[in-house]
Amino acid sequence: MWRKFREWFELTKSEERGILVLLFFIVSLWAVNFYLKYHIQRRPPSEFEVIITNKSSELQEKYNNKNSYSEYHFIGYFNPNEVSFEDLLKSGLREKNAKAIINYRNKGGKFLKAEEVYKIFNIDSGWVTFHLPYMVINQKSTENPKTKYKLFVFDPNTADSASLLRLGFKPWQISNLLRYRSRGGVFHTKEDVKRLYGIDSAFYTLLEPYIDLPAYGDGKQSITSAKATVKIELNTADSTALTALPSIGNVLAGRIVKYRTALGGYVHVNQLLEVYGIDSLKWELLLPLIEINVAHVKKININSAEEDELAAHPYIRKGLAREIVAFRKNFRLFQSVTEVEKLSLAKNRDLGKLYPYLTIGEN
Asked: Where are the bilayer-spanning segments (predicted)?
């Protein structure tokens, strides 16, 4: 039995030499791989490899953020048939999409339903989805542009929606005005009506002779109220101090502080519109009562910050953070914060908002 077993595994001299040669090749390949992996300086990636890496990072970030609407900004109710190019940009719509909507309207096109905005060529569907609930189409004015409105004397502090509609106010303008009043706002001067979001200068010129404002001495906050002599500094105020502002409760004050921490501080009052729960009406109400000291802003050193620290910033996120670190490791340190614009994932971002938060450290 044992003899037969040995016969099965008995090797000739040539077979033994073949096995030894095979083992030699296996060990040699392992040794070469080990040497290349740990002892050879990694060569800089080729231009083609950089393009492929950047593209894959871009696609990955789009996948990770496909349901994120953080880039869009609430601007109140608006009619896509009348909203201005500037307001479209403020809402987060890309410039080419905003131009496409304006060109469509200039050529005689009209949106009969809000959903028809989806039909604009190459429109950002995420932007439409975000703003669709706030798009208001005045069907009567769209179908009959010759509709005439009756002008009469009115008090914007007491006029009801039916009266405002007869005066020529659009539905979203009425909604903005009524919401402002419901939050304690009072029109003390005629100019206060002009400052209400959605009231353009041409419409105000038409209304101005008919605005009748009795003297209001109830102490309620106006858009231009001069009673708030001490402004609140956004970068140092705690949530308790913020609740002293009109229309700001504990929850909203907490969100303002939380977003300030994520940013590293506010550099412009417009950033309040990025806080969930602050719309254009609240923002206009707060403007005379707040100020910003940019000396309190914390900056990120893009030449030393780790990927996680970069990714935590609302204006950077994971994809761009990964590219910043890769640029540093594979090429060189950044010599200027504006070099970030060379990265592929930075091309479609508003870098003007990001630069105040970046530094390259000491040279």
From this structure: 18-36
β-bridge mates for residue 300, sequence order: 358
* Residue 181, token pair as written in the block: 């009043």
pLDDT the model gives residue 261: 93
The three-state secondary structure class of 43 is coil
Q: Which residues pair with 232 in a beta bridge?
A: 290
The angle formed by the CA atoms of residues 340, 89 and 263, to the nearest 5 degrees, is 45
> Which helix (H) or strand (E) element contains residue 359?
strand 358-359
Domain ranges of the chain: 85-143, 232-296, 302-359
CA dihedral 98, 99, 100, 106 (to 10 degrees): 120
Q: Is-contact 136 77, C-beta < 8 A?
A: yes
Architecture of domain 232-296 in CATH?
A: Orthogonal Bundle (1.10)
C-alpha triplet 315, 316, 319: angle, nearest 5°? 145
62-85 tens-digit pLDDT: 545 444 445 777 777 788 988 888
Instruction: For 29-71, write each residue's pLDDT tens digit.
Output: 888 877 766 555 555 555 555 555 665 555 555 545 444 445 7
What distance in Å separates the CA atoms of residue 363 and residue 268, rounded to the nearest whole number?
28
pLDDT at 346 over 70: yes
